[in-house]
Amino acid sequence: MKGSGVRVDPLREEDLPAALPLFAGYQGFYEATPDDAANLRFFRRFVAPSDDGLLLGAWVGEELVGFACLYWTFSSTHAAEIALMNDLFVAEGHRGQGIGHALIDGAVEAARRRGMHSLEWLTAVDNHRAQRLYDRTEAARAAWYGYEIGPLQ
Length: 153
Description:
Blueprint: E1 2-3, E2 6-10, H1 16-29, H2 36-44, E3 53-60, E4 63-75, E5 80-90, H3 99-114, E6 119-120, H4 128-135
Parallel strand pairs: 5-6
Antiparallel strand pairs: 1-2, 2-3, 3-4, 4-5
């Protein structure tokens, strides 16, 4: 996918080392401690072709500046397969340039190609910058609360 100087494509195995700082930046934003070895093991499962999901990258020129990770999952409400965009991150210094929007467009396109019912995602209630981006897409704000128990280990 191309637009406004941003290229969005699935990440390849050889792209993963360049993506490590982006994974760490995303995790740091949510106050998690990045671990490059664990990130390589974890995100490798989403390199195409994968039955688990899809890892998209955004490039400006030759520089990888953002990523989105989709999980192929299910909705019992719709009795259908859906895509969950579990992660979306654009490197500091590249935000506000349409890269996040290009990643969302790429995620929609990938979910549509796979025949998914819908693309869904969550964000932190205090992540107002991301919410401004999401409100500028075709997405509708859902009326659900998220709950979690964990870590369980």
